[in-house]
Amino acid sequence: MSLASWFRWNEPPHRISQRSPTEMVVETLMMELNWQTKQAEKQQRERENEYRKIKTGVDYGWLVSYPKQSYDISPGERLQLEDMCTKIHPSYCGPVILRFRQLIAEYEPEAQEVSRLFRSVLQEAADKIKEEEDAKKLARQWNTKNKSSLSLTTFKSRSRISPFISDIKTISEDVERGTQPARRVWSMPEFKHAK
Question: Record's superkingdom (predicted)?
Answer without folding.
Answer: Eukaryota
